[in-house]
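SAMPLE LOG
Freezer: B-3
Tube label: C17
Construct: single chain, 388 aa
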Amino acid sequence: MNNLAVPCDLILKALRALATPLILMAVLHTFMTANIPGRSGRKLTVLLLTNTTVAIVIGLLVANVIRPGTWGQINKPAGEIAGGVTVDPWSLVQTSVPDAVLKPLVDNNVIQLIVIALTFGIALRALKSEQTKQGKSDYKPLEQVITFLYEAIIHVLTWVIVLIPLAVFGIVARTIALEGFAPFKSLGAFILAVLLALFLQACYYLTRVKLGSWVSPARFLSGGSDAFFTAFSTSSSTVTMPITFEALQTKVGLRESSASLGALVGSNFNNDGTALYEAMAALFIAQVIGQNLPFPQQIIVILTSIFASVGAAGIPNAGLVTMTLVFSSVGLPTQYIAILVTVDWFLDRCRTAINVMGDMTVSCLLDGKQPKSAIEPALEEALAIEGD
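STRUCTURE (predicted):
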């Protein structure tokens, strides 16, 4: 029976191997290619960080209240199980700088990887801005190399993702043969908890849209219905991006600048549903194995989930990849991700729809409290008075 788990073990090894280079290249690629105007860019950054943080806090709150990991007994999967780690915030700061640049890639040290990625990403962005002002284009070969490597990693990742149904079949067959259907009670509670958290996040979006823009929640939901259904069916924010962009302009009625910032630029950063799911998955597994995650460790889960979700919007099932980093950051055994493989195919579609809903929310908030049809006549009247 243990042989049924072999495909899943191999896939998890491949995901762990791809996780660190994927996040590094995703952050560098985003910094190098994203076109964000100054003032709008600052507002966009604040909105994205706020939405993602709220999503993770909602996820952790629901997981702490419902505690789905205690609803049923799940036996340990095959393989070596890592022990928990005690996180000291001050020690974390001291060890955030690696001894060597490439060491975080080898050790899967998440915090050090984030520091390296952000440092080089900001530096490359600054150099690109300087050369752009001087009319130079020396940065373009490096940008092309980063884009090429990022796309190569995604290409390899798609090969692994194709094999996930085989892993799901093996894990489910092995679990039912050895333990019956009892372990799925806890997974059922986890699914309900994630769906509840995603629903609360959607309510948060609608509240923000109602209070911070001219768009009504009804107009928002009806105008974005095509984008939501496409996101659910494809489980990819990138594939949905053109539909989201068109819906924001033609059906919701936003300005092109607001629609492009939220749907095209924000989609590279705004993965609230993915971050929420990864935070809940970490707490769920901690509850399953009886490992306590104190508040400082849950803060680390929040920070890691934010950065691990960058660049994952266009990759179906990418949450399984970045989840290995979230688990490693607080010492959770990554072997337990095999349990989540069985339900990830469904939850991935649900959280992708929330990702797209977050992109649309950001666009509406950037558009302000006055629709373009109300502003254009005012501008024409002002120009006429100035002409007189």
